Amino acid sequence: MDSYIIGQQLLNGLTLGSIYGLIAIGYTMVYGIIGMINFAHGDIYMISAYLTAIILAVIFSFGVTSLPFALLVTLLLTMVITGVYGWAIERVAYRPLRGSTRLAPLISAIGMSLVLQNYVQVSQGARNQGIPILIDGVVRLGGEEQFVQITHIQILIVLASFIGMGVLTYIIQKTSLGRQCRATQQDQKMAAILGINTNRIISTVFVIGSAMAALAGVLVTLNYGSFDFYIGFIIGIKAFTAAVLGGIGSLPGAMLGGIVLGMSEGLFAGFVSADYKDVFAFSLLVLVLIFRPSGLLGKPEIEKV
Amino acid sequence: MSLQQKISLRKALIDGFWSGLLALVIFGPISGLVLQGYEVRNELIRPLLMALLVGGGRFLVSCFAQSEKGKRYVDGLAGKRGAGVTVASLKKGKYQYLVIPVLILAGLCLPFVLGKYWLTVVILALIYVLLGLGLNIVVGLAGMLDLGYVAFYAVGAYTLAMGAQYFHLGFWTLLPIAGIGAALFGALLGFPVLRMHGDYLAIVTLGFGEIIRLVLNNLLDITGGPNGASAPPPTLFGLEFTRRAKQGGIPFHEYFHISYSPTYKYIFIYLVLFTIVCLMILFVTRLKQMPMGRAWEALREDEIACRSLGINHVTVKLSAFMMGAMVGGTAGMFFATYQGFINPSSFTFFESALILAIVVLGGLGSTVGVIIAALVLTILPEVLRDFAEYRVLMFGIAMVLMMVWKPRGLIRIKRRAFNAKGVTS
Amino acid sequence: MFKLSLRKYLVLTCVIGAVALAGNANAAGTIKIGVAGPHTGGYAAFGEQFWRGAEQAAKDINAAGGINGSMIKVVKADDACEPKQAVSVANRLMDVDRVQAVAGHYCSSSTIPASEIYDDAGVLVMTPGSTNPKVTERGMKGVFRMCGRDDQQGAVAANFIINKLKAKRVAVIHDKDSYGQGLADAMIARMKQLGVSEVLYEGLTRGEKDFNSLVTKVKSVKADVVFFGGLHTEAGPLVRQLREQGISAAFVSGDAINSADFVTAAGGPRYVDGVYMTFGQDPLTLKTGRDVIEKFRASGYEPEGYTLYSYATVQALTAAMDATNSTDLDKMADWLHSHSVNTVLGEKSWDSKGDLKVSDFVMYQWDDKGKFRQL
């Protein structure tokens, strides 16, 4: 096998994996703090893709020509508005269910996911939407005919996912907010007794998780340029799988899970069969969990009597 | 009235203002600026109206919550969330012994009064009742979160289609095969995953569900892939319910010398399905009182205690998984025969989520609750058809609202009560 | 406790029943045509095209005096491209809405089970968009289609690839759906008759956007033509990623990429430049077609994809009703089998199976302005 092709497939897997990782971080943060699978997370990502296109269109309609400025404003606004979405969803659909069964918020989240998808479909129409190509540089290694390439935007995605993971790990491990998060995660009641406003901490986590989904939404939309109201579903399941693969609740785990999943999908599709790449990805997940029941980097559950 | 004075309008106004503002941020870009190619069309009046509505609504809610009645209501809502055990009362209702026979009688008469459309909707609802009862064993009683329940549903449905296509077997021969096949399949899937807990189990089952669907879709030469496969309708002692006999029997209407109506087939499917659902309810109710059912519930509550008391957790969990799979397979069989055609798009993850929603909304472990939830969640989308493209949106909103309204399900599970002599109620 | 909640649910049941009955009223003097398709869910874009086309056709026919004095009313029926919902909605169309004919179902997997119900109820159905051969191969008298079949379209594409493009190494990609895979298989079948085998045959997953590993695989087999059986939502990112990885192989696809959204999905006109596709004869070349298209454009809607197919379907159905002065399945079917209808897509006639007699697939090529022209 041609070494250039192998290199290219590895890079394809890496970029796809970074995208999964970016979205998986949101799942893992929410899960880490309240132990709930937020099925609406993929749809929050979808919302941010729409926001990216809308905000870009508005900025360009004002005659702005500076691309970095436009992208920066878009990124900031998208993260803020998506954060508000995360906050509002938590407030409306999950907070009233706190202290109830563990499955109640899961069902509420599935309902919320339907609401978001169909809200966007009703307001924006069912058509496939897109944004023009804004960043199209490419780095090529090798000769004229045979080369390994990565586009600038793909480099940006890989960097953003690692930086995002690093920053969030720092926040969780070293800051006062992070300490409060970890306290809430271990024992909500005790944390509340010690003066932590647990409701506010949980809201903050939702906002951060949504903002990470927005970061992914902006970058991925810039990369593929095309989206519709249904994209959150497939990528949501994949990102969730990645989060579990890496050990749900662990930020580096989400990143690692994303990259393992992306790589295995990419390599399997590239060298064996694209038809069965998802079958392979899910089989890998099952195998990993059989031998490591808490995922790659997850802490094993300790059962106490 | 002193009641009025306690309401602070200022607080309500502030609440309303902030909610309205947030609603504006949320609805503003998505509803207000519609993408057209690479440009946007201005529809900003829509989010303004929506924000006003939200703000106004919040204002009214805030006023209400400050009144005496409102406070009591809010407290009541908070109280319902608490955990704890409710015990059924020993006293029998005056006419309680009448309820079940009347319901069964009403159920048997139903197909003869309903039109064909509502009959098919009710059949579908009964299929979901069956699915809900099956998943309830796994999730509600044994406490294992299964997000890939649709796999067994698909196994049942494809058993009928493949069995008819390759082995020329009829509905009745395949009915037990589908149930047993799905159960064995459940054992096969269940065995490796039993040591996993909670959400890891959930994602592994989700993975299995997706693998089954993808394999069914990819095996074009065997299952027909996305083109699907056809499934035969049931027969009544060799009598067929089609206009012209296809399986070599005699059409039902010719045998009885009555004019043909497509409704007969559905009435027949309904009656068979109704009987099976009734038997299944009886089965599950009895099972709950048997050692096996009690072991499931005990294992759900505390696995370590159970194991230290000598309960074999592997067989107990596996039996729940298999039992659930068997019921799911039977439901799949009816789905295939009712529809006459199946393809993998009927067995997506969303279907698993819907069945899970039925179980959770019904109240984990509660049979009556599951039945009601299944009826509500299947009939609701059909009722909402008049809202055209808003249908699924409203369905989603209803799902969230129902969950917020009854976080522990429509019917909370009750422990059985025993009187002093040990006679059950 | 139980009795109280039981009462509540009884009330609920009554409400549901009342709603159901309310929908039953059927005004005299109107003919109802059901427009069934995916109005929600992942394929909702096509449902919208169906609806727009049918609605406009009904409006135009009513403006011209209706069918023998009766007005047409189109009824929206949503199947979300799920067989389960298709059966439900088909029964509803027959039993509650009591439509006299159905224009519909987009996904073949919805049309097949739903047509059994229409057949049972004695109602004629014509699909504007289900191209799977199986739809009309089941011996049902009342099943017609306004579009070509996958096997006809695949043959046109294969002839073009082998005879015009002189391709030797053809990579075939499909979307694992009945339309896409059916088209790809039909293309391969014809190509093999012409003596060329594919060098790559792979399926991608609908709804995904990242096909880079597949693209690298295409590169490794050094294909000179890539044939894609699928929709524009996947074709757009696919062609873009092919070009981004520096693959200049010709890209050929089917009628489902005929949408302005294909250009948007591909990231701009420069990536769709040179893409070939098969599609029916251009309605713009016909006088009737041009008027209708102008009407759509005047209302701010670009009639793309299946919009005109749906328009033509309603035209054909009403023509049959008009000529036979009935809505009876047998009469209408006999008339459609023996007559031709002048529709917005030109003169159409049907063979005994209900397929179009003449499949008018021709090749088109996209240019660097995001438009296409007939070759």
Topology of helices and strands:
The complex is a heterotrimer of chains A (305), B (425) and C (375).
Chain A: H1 3-34, H2 41-61, H3 67-94, H4 104-124, E1 129-130, E2 138-142, E3 147-151, H5 152-174, H6 176-186, H7 188-193, H8 198-224, E4 226-227, H9 231-246, H10 251-271, H11 277-291
Antiparallel strand pairs in A: 1-4, 2-3
Chain B: H1 2-6, H2 9-32, E1 33-36, E2 39-42, H3 45-66, H4 68-81, E3 86-87, H5 96-113, H6 116-141, H7 150-166, H8 171-193, H9 198-218, H10 220-223, E4 229-230, E5 239-240, E6 250-251, H11 252-255, H12 263-289, H13 291-301, H14 303-308, H15 313-339, E7 341-342, H16 349-362, H17 367-383, H18 391-405, E8 414-415
Helix pairs in contact in B: 2-3, 5-12, 6-12, 6-15, 6-16, 6-17, 7-8, 7-9, 7-15, 8-15, 12-13, 12-15, 13-15, 16-17
Chain C: H1 2-22, E1 30-37, H2 44-63, E2 71-78, H3 83-97, E3 101-104, H4 108-121, E4 124-127, E5 143-145, H5 150-164, E6 170-174, H6 178-193, E7 198-203, H7 212-220, E8 225-229, H8 232-244, E9 250-253, H9 260-266, H10 269-272, E10 276-279, H11 287-298, H12 307-324, H13 329-338, E11 340-343, E12 346-349, E13 362-366, E14 372-374
Parallel strand pairs in C: 1-2, 1-3, 3-4, 4-5, 6-7, 6-8, 8-9, 9-10
Antiparallel strand pairs in C: 10-13, 11-12, 13-14
Helix pairs in contact in C: 2-12, 3-4, 5-6, 8-9, 12-13
